[in-house]
Amino acid sequence: MALKKFVVGCFEDEKVLFPAVAKVRKAGYKFHDIYTPFPVHGLDSAMGLRETSIHTAGFLYGLVGTTTAVTFMTWVFTKDWPVNIGGKPNFALPAWIPITFELTVLCAAVGMVLTFCYICQLAPFVKKHTFHARATDDLFVMVIECGEKTNEDELKALLTSVGAQEVNTQIAEEGWWIGRYDQEQSLYKEPNIA
Amino acid sequence: MSKQQFEISAGYKKWTNALLGVGILTLVLGFIFLATSKEELNQTRFWAVLLQNSVFFLLVVNASMFFICATTLAMGGWQMAFRRVPEAISSLVPVFGVFALVVFLGIIFGHQYGIYHWLDKEHVEHDPILKGKSAFLNPTFFLTWTIISLFMWSWVGAKMRKLSSQADEKMDKEQSKKFIWTNTVWASIFIVFFALTVGSTIPWLWLMSIDAHWFSTMYSWYTLISSFVAGISLVAIYVIYLKNQDYLEYVTEEHLHDIGKFMFAFSVFWTYLWYSQFMLIWYANIPEETIYFKPRMQGVYRGIFFLNLITNFAVPFLLLMRRGSKRNYTTVTFLAVLIILGHWIDFYQMVMPGTVNEHYTLGWFEFGILSLYAGLIMFFVGRGLAKKPLVAKFHPFIKESTIHHT
Fold this sequence. Notes:
The complex is a heterodimer of chains A (194) and B (406). With 194 residues, chain A is α+β, with helices and mostly antiparallel strands. Chain A has helices at residues 14-26, 43-47, 54-80, 93-119, 152-161; strands spanning 3-11, 30-35, 126-127, 140-145, 166-173, 177-178. Chain A contains 5 helices and 6 strands. A 4-stranded antiparallel beta sheet of chain A has the order 2-4-1-5. Chain A has a two-stranded antiparallel ribbon with strand order 3-6. In chain A, helix 3 (54-80) packs antiparallel against helix 4. Chain B has 406 residues and is mainly α. Chain B has one domain. In chain B, helix 1 (10-35) packs antiparallel against helix 16 (364-387), helix 2 (40-73) packs antiparallel against helix 3 (84-90) and helix 8 crosses helix 9. The chains are: A alpha+beta (194), B mainly alpha (406). The interface between A and B is small, with 11 and 11 residues.
């Protein structure tokens, strides 16, 4: 477990958050993430996040599905077990389209979900640090990672000046670890202040 | 600050006149060499090409009004930034309606049995299938229903455009509520009538009756979506053109992205309908049904048959899939032109095998008439755009459109 230091600023309003994001970004700080109670349109581009690659992955999974379906059916119906069905040719592509389509969609969908879970490190019994419990309710929680050169006090002052209601520092594990939420419950404990 | 009022530029005028010139010349030459020719095949070619183009472009411009009414009923706000564009395009419905009517009158009263063989009374007497359908497929019903449809599309469309002008002036909350309600009522009238015509009967009468012995229950949907995806592409071309000319200040990449989604989604939907129609017929393999696909898939139309699938499905599907390409002016323009031409070819292969049989030509007359219609669209849409401010500044939903984010 590699512990890292984070400065956390909490905002009550989206309208305050957007200019704050622009200012913090301009000052050159590195966002760890911004936790919001609901999807906020345009926040990703305001934070300067690159476009997700999950659709590229989805396309590739789909391609795998298409290829699997077509090659398998071709092999079965022309090589392994050719059967005359209603006088149709053995290589009956139009009849295979629905199955090909289904398998494409299935592979793309399941593949994308699993990839998403892997990238976000979501799985049963996987535990991650929660920076503020109200992030799932009504608070916009901006988390900034501190590097070696980061001046913590300056950053805190900046966050307060751009409208953060609550500012604190937390030492937390950045990645994930195996644990259970019903045990070692730390959601409602005081945040660890270094 | 962008320009509010569209002015037809010199370049636009030049292109309009060039396309119209080529088109009118083709029509005159076609009339001399084809329509009045002794050979029946030439006459059939003349009327078949006119039928294909007049029906296709009429349905394409009418799709704009369908788009407006469907988004109105869905309480959509995002399209307000460019809604005057489909409005201007839909103002062509009466014009193209009259052209189509002239073509139908020419076919019916010119006794063009090569186009609609159910027009031949003697032949129908000896044909039990056509006799059974004669209550529907006869000149009186054909013309009556065509005229009613053209009138309703034009009239309700004109009403919707007139209503839209109210949004150029400031209105208070009560007026806004009433405005939205009136729009909803008229839009629903249009949609219901649209379903009864383009969604079902009109493609049966105008196009499916070319192959009068054959029928498909998917045909109308397939025609409707074919014209709708081409219609959306036409809107996309105009939105991009106007944006490049520094009009439409509220339109951003986000709006273009949503138009691109429409083009993508309905290309896929078109394929779904095309395939559903094809697969059922292919699978059942009943001679009276497969007769439709025989000349198209195995005859001389084989190339056009597969070209149709490539231009209307494979290329838009693969190229419009990426987010970035839906937000790129060049890609969307390229694909919009491709989709319009692709569905023009689609209508071509609907009309030609049943009329000129295996003697099809994609030559000077076909492309000349295409140029005539392109010129007409440019001429009338340009005038329609110049008539009103390009943005309905006081529409109650305009705010929703300006902050639109996909």
